[in-house]
């Protein structure tokens, strides 16, 4: 398996904290086989601030 592009997932927690978020809601995940041996995976969610009670 060859990684075509570097994963962006390592940037997501940092970006969420920069925005003041402490949770992620509405997470969606989708994986598609583009052709034999080539797949793409997409994941997104909404950064949110959760407050106690």
Quick summary of this structure?
With 53 residues, the chain is mainly beta.
Commentary on this structure:
The chain is mostly beta strands and 53 residues long. The protein has one domain. Helix content is 13%, strand content 45%. The chain is built from one helix and two strands; from the N terminus they run H-E-E. It has one helix spanning 12-18, and strands at 23-35, 38-48. The chain has a two-stranded antiparallel sheet. Strand 1 and strand 2 (38-48) form a beta hairpin. The longest helix is centred in the N-terminal third of the chain and has 7 residues, at 12-18. It is elongated and about 50 Å long. The model has no long low-confidence stretch (mean pLDDT 82).
Write the layout of secondary structure elements.
Blueprint (H helix, E strand, L loop, with lengths): L11 H7 L4 E13 L2 E11 L5
Antiparallel strand pairs: 1-2
Terminal Cα span: 47 Å
Stretches with pLDDT under 50, minimum 5 residues:
none
The helix-and-strand class reads mainly beta
* H and E string: HEE
The whole-angstrom Rg is 15 Å
Global mean pLDDT: 82
Widest β-sheet, arrangement of strands: 1-2
């Amino acid at each position: 398996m060859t990684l075509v592009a570097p994963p962006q997932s390592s940037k997501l927690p940092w970006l969420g904290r920069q925005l003041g978020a402490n949770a992620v809601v509405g997470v969606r995940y989708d994986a598609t086989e583009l052709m034999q041996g080539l797949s793409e995976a997409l994941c997104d969610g909404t950064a949110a601030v959760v407050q106690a009670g």
